[in-house]
Amino acid sequence: MSALPWLVALWLFAIGFYGMMTSRHYVHLIGCLSVMQSGTYVLLLAAGFRWGAGPPIFSDHPPGTPAVDPVVQALVLTDIVVGAAVTALLLALALQLHKRRGTLDPEELKPMRR
Amino acid sequence: MTPLLAGLLLLVAATGAGVVLTRQPRRQVMAMAANGLALTVLFTALQAPDVAFSQLVVGTAAVPLLFLAVLASIRLHRPEEKE
Amino acid sequence: MSPRARGILATLAALALAPGALAVLRAMPAFGDHPLPYGDAVNRIAPAERIVSNMVTAVNFDLRGFDTLGEEVMLLAAVVGTVVVLRGSRGEGVGDRPATCGDRPIPPRSEAVVLLCRIIAPLTLLYGLYVVLHAQLTPGGGFQGGAIIGSGLLLVWVGEGYNAWRRLVPGVVLHALEGGGAGLYALMGFGAMLTGAAFLTNVLPLGEWGSILSGGVIPVVNFGVGLAVSGAFGMLFLEFLEETREPKDGEEP
Q1: Is residue B83 one of the residues assigned to a domain?
Q2: Which of A79, A104, B7, C135 allows an S-S link to C141, with CB 3.0 to 4.6 Å?
Q3: Residues in A 30-49 with any Cβ partner in C closer than 8 A
């Protein structure tokens, strides 16, 4: 039971990978990529968690009270925002592809099959 | 493992699978927003309010909106779309 | 490779990797009950050393300040890439009418939507600014506040329509926010070098506990990030929504 967070992180990564592999639409594929990414968020935050500890913000409770790990939270926080911008870049590429080739199905976009 | 955390983790796992298994992109946007909301609640329960804040804004508002704009644009630039 | 062959290959790869994944799972520490050396060190030292109460901000903008500069540049690069890719084929003009899908009419905005947006949009932008400015004290910071401001700008579009939105939020301002914010961050790092310290050393006075200006360099670089992220999200929305407009004659290839 104690392994549930790690299992959920693994599950998100695996199902996102499965979705990317079987996707027939590039926009859907980018959504699957974000699911894979959220697996890493769950893994990192679960690794920094501690039973009975509060958030690492000492405005309500004084410094010195038990708190969870702020380092992993800082990592995940920046990654969420930067990840959104990278998702936007991928979407722009997909849009461009659609304008050039008129389709977003990876199977129809084999380079030799014009 | 408290029931709350276990339930939230399972919810995130289920909504994540929902995003992948919703094959139609326009419906997938809604699944993504639901997944973002589930992640937000999970991060709050893991004592990470900063991260939950970030996930709330980005995961439930900004990214689904970008996807919607892209889907609208795809529809507009292909009038002879076969759906 | 056919989808079928790809599926078989992926299943074989998953079967090959499964023992490793199981071994890692068994070796993982118990959830919520293992030492956190770095986190505990930050929680013990940073409140006294940096006079900030939000440890996540302290890690982001001081202890890991150089890494965050890297993240900032990644954001800048991704946004610039998006803009270049989208404008490369569309041109820089502003479409003056919405593109329609076949002969489907465009529904007019209802007065309730306009009223709600006029009330909520300023409040959202103000709240975003609050979140940016109180990074060292309460949950929030430049990344979250910037995203709130950037998304709040969309309420102007919902309430006032596309053309008013483009007039009220000119692209030039967003470009300046994006570049200026990232520039402020980097300049703050070089500013520390002028005093003889290393890049991004916290050279400013630390202030008092609980003050909005406490933390020395932290509020400054955090504000830079807030500017850059709000500019980035504003630009992303602007570029993607411009894609849904009717192109001006002769711009579409």
Answers
A1: no
A2: C135
A3: 46, 48-49
